[in-house]
From TrEMBL:
Substrate binds at R57. This is Phosphoglycerate mutase. It holds the Pfam family His_Phos_1. It comes from the Bacteria. PANTHER family: OS09G0287300 PROTEIN. Coiled coil: none annotated.
Amino acid sequence: MKRLILMRHAKSDWSLGQPDHERTLNKRGRQSAKALGRWLAAEGLTPDQVLCSTATRTRETLKRLALDPEPQTVFEDRLYHAGPESMFRQLSAATGTTVLMVGHNPGIAAFADEISATAPPHPRFHDYPTGATLVVEFDIDVWADLAWQSGVPRGFVIPRELLDSGEA
């Protein structure tokens, strides 16, 4: 069994006029990333490998998750605004049992939809807002055996739910 935690970066700050790749998180994004980290820990979702875009906002999201223990992490240029095919190739080469992939829309929403056998029953799944996180499991022994529409969704959350519920 393999598990993917597919996370879109938290809310970034457009007000500073930074180039897209260098945009940092805004205040809400920083709070959201911390809330997502606490949610992952509470759910027992500890990745042993991370595949993360090289963009500043994805790296900052990952850092603020405060994962413990710290997993093996690969910062990958090819995940910066990657489409579903590129994300599939990156995941197919993964070595971890539970892999966290941190990326960007619109590719991450399309990838989530195409990798899952069914959509989770959540009204925000298809637009995959900032910080959206899907947990999906695959009945495979190695990631090289990954197939489209083979994942079974086990959870989906958006930061607003965590912040509004007081779980953050």
